[in-house]
Amino acid sequence: MSSVLRHPLGAVVAATGLTLPWVYIWATRSAESLPTLWVVTVSGVAVLGASFLLAWGAETAEKDVPRAFAIAVLAVLAVAPEYAVDALYAWTAGANVGTDRGAEAANLAVANMTGANRILIGLGWSGIALFTLYRVGRSSDPAVESRPGPLADVVNLDRDISTEIAFLLAATAYAFFVPLSGGIGIVDTLVLVGLYVLYIAVIIRGDVEEHEEQVGVPAYFHGYPRIGRVAVVITLFAYSGAMIYTAVHPFAHGLETLGTQLGIPPFFMIQWIAPLASESPELIVVAYLVNKARSTAGFNALISSKLNQWTLLIGTLAVVYSIAAGVVGTLPFDFKQSAEIWITAAQSFFALAILVNFNISGREAVALLVLFVSQVAIEFLLVRDLVSLPFGIGAIDVLLTYTVVYLVLGTVLFAVRRDGLRELLDRTAHTAQDAFGSGQTQAERAD
Question: Is the per-residue pLDDT at 137 higher than 90?
Answer without folding.
Answer: no
